[in-house]
Amino acid sequence: MGASIRVTIPTPLRQYTANRDSVEVQAKDVREAIGALVSQYDQLRRHLFNDQGQLRNFVNVYVNEEDIRYLQKESTPLTEGDTVSIVPSIAGGNLSTMDLLAAKRKDALSPAEIKRYSRHLILPEVGMQGQLKLKQSSALIVGAGGLGNRSSSTSVPRAWAVSASWTST
Fold first, then answer.
1. Domain extents for the chain?
2. What is the CATH number of domain 3-88?
3. Residue range 37-74, pLDDT digits in tens
4. Parts of the chain with a pLDDT under 70
């Protein structure tokens, strides 16, 4: 049996842990801690792991605020009282020329878009492929003021919408 570990749950995933912001588990390393978490809350598995059983690209894990990618990854040992934090990937910084160019591309997400849609990216129903499909799509809103209409501006992001209006004669 391992040490008593606190695993913090990000807000978008709390619905799968009975709205708990943290869960106590017993574990010797990060792999065991996350395994114990998903054994208690099985619906988390598809949000944290891909079909090959690897942590999803947009899920970062920290032990006491240290990124496990720079430690021993999932083999990072844990000691009594450690905190394991699950954090959706978020890019930061100002928009650079490269960000602006990437934002125009339909086959990739810019760091700013990854930040904006980070909660979507960790959902297996959306993920990177789904978000790219959304980026490549558009919606035609006809009548009722088009994008000026409150209902259309809240239901369809402006970047996806093309507004058209007709007047009857």
1. 3-88, 97-157
2. 3.10.20.30
3. 999 998 888 888 888 888 887 788 889 888 888 888 88
4. 1, 89-111, 139-169
Does this model's pTM top 0.85? My answer is no
DSSP string, the chain: --EEEEEE--GGGGGGTTT-SEEEEEESBHHHHHHHHHHHSGGGHHHHB-TTSPBPTTEEEEETTEEGGGTTGGG-B--TT-EEEEEE----S---HHHHHHHH-SSS--HHHHHHTHHHHTSTTTHHHHHHHHHH--EEEESTTGGGSHHHHHHS-GGGEEEE-----
